[in-house]
Structure formats: structure tokens, C-alpha cells
Design brief:
Blueprint lengths: L23 H22 L7 H14 L6 E3 L1 H12 L1 E4 L2 E6 L2 E7 L4 H4 L7 E5 L2 E2 L5 H9 L5 E8 L2 E8 L1 E4 L3 E7 L4 E6 L6 H14 L4 E5 L8 H9 L7 E7 L5 E4 L11 E5 L6 H11 L4 E4 L7 E7 L5 E10 L26 H14 L7 E3 L5 E3 L8 E2 L7 H8 L2 H12 L1 H8 L3 H6 L5 H13 L5 H6 L1 H17 L1 H10 L2 H7 L2 H9 L1
Parallel strand pairs: 11-12, 12-15, 15-16, 16-21
Antiparallel strand pairs: 1-18, 2-9, 3-4, 4-5, 5-6, 5-7, 7-8, 10-11, 13-14, 13-18, 17-18, 19-20
Amino acid sequence: MKKNLLLILLPLIFSFSYAKNDSLENVIEIQVQKFKNILEVVSANYYKENIDISKISENAFNSLLQSLDKFSTYFNASQYEKIKDAFKGSGEGIGVQFFRRGDSLMVFNVLKGSPADSVGLTVGDRIIYINHEYFVGRDAQSAYRKISESQNKKCILTIKRGGFLKEVEVPIAETQIPSVVVSVEFKGTSVGLIKLTRFSLSTFSEFTRAFDSLVKIGCKRFIIDLRGNQGGYLDETVKLVELFLKKGDTIVVVSGREVHRKVYICEKDGKYKNYPLIVLVDKNSASASEIFASAMQDNDRAIVVGERTFGKGLVQRTWEFKDGSAFRLTTGEYVSPLGRNIQKPEVENVDLGAFADLTLGKEQKEMIEELIKKTGGATNLPIYYTKKGRALFGGGAVVPDYFFQYDTLPPYLNKLKNNGLLNDFVLRYFFDNQQNYLEISKLNFQNFLFKFEVSDRVMSSFKQYLMQTNSYLEKYFDEEYYKIKSEIKATLGYILFGDSGYFSTLLLQDTIIGKVQNLFGEAEKLVQQ
């Protein structure tokens, strides 16, 4: 018997109408009523039961905002809490980093002064139970989530250490998430380097503390590394910029509707206005990083070095709801002190005719041309001139004064990191072996950075380990030998000293840093003129 498949449409008529001259309030009220009716009809009539009305509503909110621009977005309560934690400089937790090793999660890093540190958790502890739930075979994200769901601000961990099981009660507390991850002096150069990963609510105090400490030990010239820094709070950024400018200098202009327009002016001479400065940026430096870099450029305050930045110059303001959710809406656009748009156009074409206006050498022009071809370029790039006559590119994002393309992680090493083999080896070699552990446990931060080296014996052991795991590729191992060696030390630095250990190790071996230091003569002229 042949079946007929029928699509039956039963029209339900809702009465909505408004005239062209209706007030905006009426138009909004009608759309709100439509949305309410849609939810009611879906809830009562959709062919599947148990519809999550909150979830589909949140999807609708996000679609609405994303239709305006890609930076306007909705956050549910859980998402918004994580975002606030990331940018307020602290978050609730126990202060550990887990790493999946075989079928178990292991403690990979313990934050100094954290709850985990206070109860004696240590690198290499295997996680067997979390809050009495068996956790062998689970991933790190599941563990963090389980810990966050703990009752009464306490987490019960059952760990395995030295063949014995031990139950530990760990309090859940507010732990610091530093934005200054590196503060280091380059020995014998009077150069200090500070790396910022974000502009959070604690950045100003962290930064001034780090800068003053470097001055105290004799640093007179500074590199501020904003590579990979994707932004943060505008007010924190403005406070940081003010440290380096003179009274009356423009920091940034925020355009948009009248209610949101504002020109930020430096109200007094900055505490650090006389220190020669170089700012490092890359293609992932965005938003607040670009405000900082453009303010330094436009006011003839610093030499900006690296890659063309991300080009995120739109201002977002956040509105919160009582249930903990929130939405972020674009309300304006950042413009540099000279009037350069930071927001990079979505579609760009390359027109190299603009280079004729610049007094640059052939080699510098070729570097610029090559970079702009790779990053999208701009149509008829506008040229802006500072008070001291320096030529700067407009056209979106921050185009550096000097171009350096940074090394990316080579493919073989990248694979060794992503599949966990490098982390596993570092744990095996330095922590499973009691003699090796005793050797590294005596190192303080300075001795680790400047005296400890990953020996050829360690590299030979890593080679054997890769052979045993069928991961050894001789050609790539030899080609990337020194990069691998550096990454092993950096990973060990992370386990021992956190982000500071990791990034400091890599920065001290960064070939770009050596090249950048040759530009301090130019940076010094800017503060002397």
C-alpha cells in the first residue's frame, strides 16, 4: 500500500501591525511580543518534548547580536563568569594545571601560594578521584569543571603518590591570574623586558611593580612585549599609557554616538616618560594592545617592532542581567591620536603606490611590501606624520616602524607538543627519576634561567624515548634540535615556576630580542628630542 506523506500547515494568526511613523518603543514592543509568542508556540507544539527554552533563546540572542558585527555577542552566566575571571586578574580554583598522561590526569603545575600549594599537592601526583567520583580516563577540562562544582568551597581529591593513595581536602579560593608573565633583565645590557598577556584589572599594579623592580636593579632601557596580547580593559590601558607620555598628549579617541564619544588626554607627566622604549607586536596583538602601541607611535614615544597587528579597533560595552548572563555590544571605534583607524577593513586590496611617499631604503620597502602582501595590505595606504616628522601607515591596525616576522613553532616540535610527548618526557626524566628531581628542585628562578641548560644527555634520552614511542623522525629531530632543546627547558620552567618560567626561558633565547636591542639608539633619540 502506497503511503502519502503530507505536510500539514495550520496557520495561527497573530495580530501585529504598526505604522511607519510608530515610535521606536512601539516597534520594539511588537518584536518582543513576537518573540514571546514564538517561544510559547514552540514550547506547546514542537514535536519533541522537553525543549530547553533558555538554550534556544540564548541562541537567538547571540544570532541577533552577531548579525550586527562579529564582536557583539551574548554570554550565558557560565561563559560570562569565565570571561570576568580572565580579565579581572583572578579566578576561583585550587591553583593547579593538569596533564593527561596515559589513562590518568597528573598535576603538571602548582601555582605558588595557591590552595593546592598550601595542602602539599606536587607535580606528578596522579588524580584518581575528584569529589569521590572515579576520574581515571577523563580529560583535564572535565576535572576543572568537576572541581568548580564542588560544594562548600572544598574539593576532595584522591591522589596516587609513590604507589600509595591519599585523600586531600583542598579549599577553593580566589587565585591570581597574572597578566605580567615576564619581568627580566638582560645581563650586562641595562635592558629590561616586560611581557604582558592581557590588560586586566590587576595589570597596572603588576606592571608598575615589575617596572620599578627592574629600575631598582639598574635597567635604563625597556622592551614591552605585547605579542599575542588580545586586549582587555580600556581604563587599565589608558592608565598604563599615561605612565610613558607627557601632560597634554592624546592617548586615544573613542568615536561613535555622542553619548559614547570621548578623547582621552594625559593629565600629567608620566612616571616613566624618560625611559627609552621598544614595543613588540605581532599579528595577534589586538584591541588594547593596539591602543598602547599606536599611542606610543603617534606621540613619538617608542619604536614599535614586529608584525602588522590584528586590527580590532571596535569598542564594546557590556550589559549584565540579574541571572549572571550578559551581552556585549559594539558602541564605538578606537582612533589613534593622529586619527589612524585601528579597525582593519574586512576586505583589503594591495596598492604599493603609497610607498613612494615614504623616505625608506630599498630593503625596508621590500620588507614592507612582502609583509603587506602576506597580511592583506590596504588600498592606497594613508600616511600620517608625527610632530617629529616620522611617517606612519594608516589603513587599519598598527603597522610597526620596523618589520620582523617571528619564528613559528616548527612542525615536528609542534606535533610533539600537541600529542603530549614532550610534556610526558619532561615528567619522566626530571620528576620520575629521583636523582634528576633532586638536582632541579634546588634551583631558584634566576639560576634556572641563566645557569641551567638542557644537556646533550637529556636530548639523547629524549631521542630514545621518541624511538620507543615510534615518534622519532631523524631528519626533523636534527633540523629542529635546538628548538626542541629550548622547548624542553621552557616546559620544565613552566612546571617549576609557572608562566613566568616558560615565557622567560623562550624570550632569553629569542633571536628577535637581540636584533631589537640594536634599535635602542633610535628609541633614545625620541626621548631626548
